[in-house]
Amino acid sequence: MSTLYDKLKGYSDSDYYGFHMPGHKRRGIPAYDPADVRMPYEIDITEIEGFDDLHHPRGILKCAQERAARVYHADETHFLVNGSTVGILSAVCGVTEKGDTILVARNCHKSVYHAIYLNELNPVYLYPGFDSKVGLNMEIRPQDVRDALERYPDVRAVVIVSPTYDGVVSDVTAIAEAVHEKGLPLIVDEAHGAHFGFHSVFPENSNARGADIVIHSVHKTLPSLTQTALLHMNGSRIDRERVKRYLGMLQTSSPSYVLMAAIDLCMEELESRAGEMFGAYAGKLCEVRKKLSGLKCLELIRTECYDISKLIIYTGSIEFTGKELYRRLLSEYHLQMEMAAGSYVLAMTSVSDTKEGLERLTNALFRIDNKIGAQTIDECPRTGGLPRAEVVCSIADAERKVCADAAECMFVPWDAAAGYVSAEYAYLYPPGSPLIVPGERISEEAVRMLFWYRDKGFSVEGFKRERYVEVLKIKREIQHGKL
After folding, report:
1. Helix (H, G, I), strand (E, B) or coil at 463
2. Nearest Cα to 339, choosing from 220, 455, 214?
3. Of 68, 387, 441, 452, which is least packed with CB atoms within 10 Å of its CB?
4. For the CA atoms of the chain, what is the radius of gyration?
5. Per-residue 3-state assignment (H helix, E strand, C coil) for 87-153
6. CB 189 within 8 A of CB 243
7. pLDDT value at position 343?
8. What is the DSSP letter of 157?
9. 8 Å CB contact between 277 and 269
10. Buried residues in 122-132 as b, exposed as e (16+ CB within 10 A)
11. pTM
């Protein structure tokens, strides 16, 4: 039986080209000769003399983190070797107390919900706008933030995601102003925006736009290894020592020096060569987007506030779904996309993309475009983006009931689930934003979406039993027929 290493090596030796994470695109750091890059085994160490300690940095790691803070214009920056997830968990838990109320964008990553669970928080949801044509969740509106803060004066912190997995950018400056007027901290999950601020074609990063805590996944859009990320802290509205205590608890006690070295090399590149790297990248990217604007049946999507590094190819006017386009690009052209949604595919680009790789994608899309005819697709039954749901109890209370007494819960089939209070999550991964959250009353809309995604071949994750939902035995308030 072959090992995982054998499979990885075989994939590396193949002609498959990746428009997905990580951002190094299997090419390493541009300024370094691949022949000079040591294999991980040769440089994999622990906390030995002269190499500092991530949890108590005083030497080379302290200097490395200070450089990262300079690069991103943050007051203080910390290396993360457990991905952005550990940064989000530490940030949310570090700025709240048990049982606090928190204002959260409903399209946040599941790690935000896990932090809500860990600190037994009561979430108030901000719903993003929605593009019903493409089936794309849009930005969080600053006025919605202001209205929610007026309506819920006991909110203690605000969390949004910008850019989203699909590249939609919110007005972080205006949102920060609204949040700070109430004396509250703003946490921005900017995991997909680690490349922001290095060229005028991209927005400024959220440190420069007023956020108190910003989390970046260096590996997503920059040349760094998977799991590498950064947590930035700014200003005096947060207890930085408390956030750092959570980092100490939640990050591994044996941080990988290979991963930390990857972050540091990436920061060195950004500090010394960002203008050169991003100038060339922006030129290639703008050229590709200009060419793709000539597609006839397929369509390159760009919203008003958008990260142009994400190429969203919409298939909504043709005979096949985003999943079918994804399959064709992979099987016929050996181009691996990041994700397929109901009506589009997502291709992630980075500074490490080659001109040849981008041309392969462009040529493949035009060949497919020329072969297809315009027909109406069976649209995903979304009327307003993420399904709106009534919060009946906290995530922690729902989980507590599940753990305490199995008699408090039962499994119901999807077509009978509307009206019940969910005891488990349901989400598509990627991107990892839940359709259903424990403690929420399941809506008819959520059930329709589950069936639509299943029928189109998508994997709906989170359920303990296939096509069943675990629910709490609480009185139902919705009557409905079979779906």
Report:
1. coil
2. 220
3. 452
4. 23
5. HHHHHHHHCCCCCCEEEEECCCCHHHHHHHHHCCCEEEEECCCEECCCCEECCCCHHHHHHHHHHCC
6. no
7. 85
8. E
9. yes
10. bbbbbbbbbbe
11. 0.91
